[in-house]
Amino acid sequence: MALNTGWSGSPALKKRFVFSSLTALTIFALLLLRLWYLQIIRSDDYRLLSERNRTRFVTIAAPRGPIVDRSGHVLVDNRPAFRIAALRQEVTDPETMLARLAEILDLEPELLEARWAAGRQLPRYRPVPLADDVSREAMEKVMERSFELPGVLTEIRPIRFYPHRESAAHLLGYLGEITEEELRSPAYRNYQGGDFIGKNGLEKVMEAYLNGIPGEHRVEVDVLGKKLRILKTREPLSGQRLTLTIDRDLQLATEAAFGDQAGAAVAIDVRTGEVLALVSMPNYDPSLFARGISGREWLDLLQNPLNPLQNRALTGQYAPGSIFKIVTALAALEFDPSLNNFHTNNTGQFVLGNQTFRDSTAVGRTISGLREALQRSSNIWFYEVSLKIGIDRIATMARRLGLGTPTGIGLAGERAGLIPDSQWKRRRFNDRWYQGETVIASIGQGYILTTPLQLANLMATVANGGTVLRPYLIKEIDNMRGQIEKIPPPQPLQQAHLNPAQLELVRQGLKAVVNERGGTAFSSRLDELSYAGKTGTAQVVAQAQRRRADQVVPYRLRDHALFGAFAPSVNPEIAVAVVVEHGGSGGAAAAPIARAMFESYFKLREPVADEDTQRN
After folding, report:
1. In what helix (H) or strand (E) does residue 581 lie, and over which residues does it extend?
2. How far apart are CA 590 and CA 581, in angstroms?
3. Euclidean distance between the first and final Cα of the chain, in Å?
4. Which residue, among 529, 531, 513, has the nearest Cα to 587 in the 3D structure?
């Protein structure tokens, strides 16, 4: 009997078999499709994820470019420092980790929490910086307790180093941690949270040159995060080196001459506009910012009554006092050359209507002309001459000499000062200009304001024959790979178009100020060097407000002391301006600082060495 090979089941069973078979085939097909998708379409993505699970990307910080003076002396460099960071992907309990670190490092927990929160902007495989410039002892404690701190790393990074500590702090500037707002700016698109950037001075202005390009280690780790080997390294590129026009020895000598006084001083090469010294006192320590300034340290700086963060050389606006007599003298000679021989009797007071203007210099003398008026700084001579020429001629000459406008030195915050005239008074106060205002303007008081940088540039203009220079600070830029970009002197701002013979008359008067008996800076003369200058004393408040019953003038009410000069008096090379806040007499307080500057520049005494230099 033959076997029946057909289906012997019922139609229901046959249907169930077909359905089950199709279902199994469908599931198998979906599994094959999923496998193809994962292995073929998404292979690169999952390979990257796999790599990230077994590798770390450790950033190698790029050293910022060093800053050196005109002779190659280092003003700012880098030193190695320890940083504590953490990988978010390996930290399972951030609160506990941060609390333990705060205890070990003796830091405020809120500070670490803020930095941890800021690190959320970084890719998960990038370390989040938590503490910079920690001590070796603290770093070793962190390493010893690493089993309690999973995901915490110790790194060595370059940090800013200032060999001369506070010297030139306002010029060089300081660093600070990049903010969230700055990270959103296109100018900082290549930066990351935790990076330090220039916040002030040259560090900020030259950020694009000083900041290097970070490198990276690609490190293989085991399941516990222990480093096994370095898979790949991309070396960092250092920032570019800046060579400044600054003379380190002159800068240090000027700062030393100020002592604990507040004020500013600027020195300029009268031939090129190179800034040889730019001093603002008191200074501050920029290394506080390089490692991350604490809230207490920042508050101390802000609450200091002498305002050490202000760059007085650029932003301090002062009445120029009798230095402005140079402007009045040139305006008078241009208006009427015969005023060079104008005589007047200095009785100690000048009456104009119902106002009396006083003069404490050369009282009882007959001032025989411009030369003696400058030498003895006779106010009354300038009072009388100013009424002959008027405020508008004085203001026009001041602007021709570069006053009343920024010099364009290239640092942020430079102020313009103020040179008033009759039209300005009408616009500002809707009032006419009065003769009494001309009288006080002629000696650099009243509405007139100038910066120490402008006064130094004024003296340079007088010294070089009438070219108003644009001061500059960068001499060359070296990319550290053999390519050096020389920075040529910028074009002058303008020509003052001074009459050479008239200018020489003024220069002879300024020479007499220093080198002839009776000159207001005679006590600061140098036997080895003939230089020319003009003292100035600028009232802070009216005379009546300054005096008390015991005749002691409080510090904040004392006059500012000023001195502008150039040297040598023949064929000048350097011009300086000095302002000593509440220093009193320009001849007593400001001129000795200028003398010290000339002694340093012309090597008439040994260079000043700061504490670090002496230790080294």
Report:
1. none
2. 10
3. 116
4. 513
Rounded Cα distance, 198 and 208, in Å? 10
DSSP secondary structure letter of residue 64: P
Beta-carbon contacts of residue 248 (< 8 Å; ≥ 6 apart): 69, 71, 73, 75, 164
CB of 246 closer than 8 Å to CB of 168: yes
Q: Tell me, what amino acid is at 460?
A: A
Q: What is the pLDDT of residue 25?
A: 81
| Interval 23-43: pLDDT, tens | 878 888 788 887 776 677 766
CA distances for 345 relative to 116, 351, 521, 542, angstroms: 75, 13, 22, 25
The per-residue DSSP string of 187-224 comes to GGTT--TT-EEE-SHHHHHTHHHH--B-EEEEEEE-TT
CA dist 101 and 88 (Å) reads 15
Q: What is the pLDDT of residue 3?
A: 47
Closest CA relative to residue 280, chosen from 245, 336, 243, 318: 318
Domains by residue range for the chain, with CATH: 55-244 (3.90.1310.10), 248-259+314-571+585-612 (3.40.710.10)
Q: Own/partner pairs for 355-359, CB < 8 Å, 24+ apart? A: 355/436, 357/383, 357/436, 357/439, 357/440, 358/543, 359/383
Within a 13 Å sphere around the CA of 545, how many CA atoms are in the beta-carbon half? 9
| DSSP result, 424-481 | HHHHHHS----HHHHHHHTTT-TT-BB-HHHHHHHHHHHHHTSEE---B-EEEEE-SS
For tokens 């980790």, what's the residue?
97
Q: Are 259 and 289 in contact (CB under 8 A)?
A: no
As a whole number, mean pLDDT of residues 119-131 equals: 75
10 three-class SS:
coil
DSSP string, 371-387: HHHHHHT-HHHHHHHHH
Strand 241-244 and strand 67-68: the pairing is: parallel
| CA–CA distances in Å: residue 177 to residues 110, 291, 293, 429, 520 | 16, 9, 10, 44, 49
Helix and strand numbers, DSSP H then E, in the chain: 24, 23
CA atoms within 13 A on the CB side of 353: 6
Query: Does residue 40 sit in helix, strand or coil?
Result: helix
Is residue 236 within 8 Å of 158, Cβ to Cβ?
no
Note the pLDDT tens digit of each residue in 377-400: 999 999 999 999 999 999 999 999
Task: Convert the pLDDT of each residue in 232-249 to its tens digit.
Answer: 788 888 899 999 999 999
Measure the CA–CA gap between 311 and 282, rounded to whole angstroms: 9
Integer Cα distance of 371 and 493 in angstroms: 29
253: left (phi over 0), alpha (psi -120 to 50) or beta: alpha
**Letter string b/e over residues 306-316, b meaning 16 or more CB atoms within 10 A of that residue's CB:** eebbbbbbbbb
Helix or strand holding residue 285 (H, E): none
Q: Is the dihedral of CA 76, 82, 87, 88 positive or negative?
A: negative
CA dihedral 454, 460, 464, 467 (to 10 degrees): -20
Which residues are CB-contacts of 401 (< 8 A; sequence separation ≥ 6)?
A: 327, 330, 458, 461, 462, 468, 496
Residue 422 tokens read as: 């009759």
In our burial notation (b when 16+ CB lie closer than 10 A, e otherwise), range 26-39 reads: eeeeeeeeeeeeee
What crossing angle do the helices spanning 591-601 and 248-258 adopt, rounded to 10°?
150
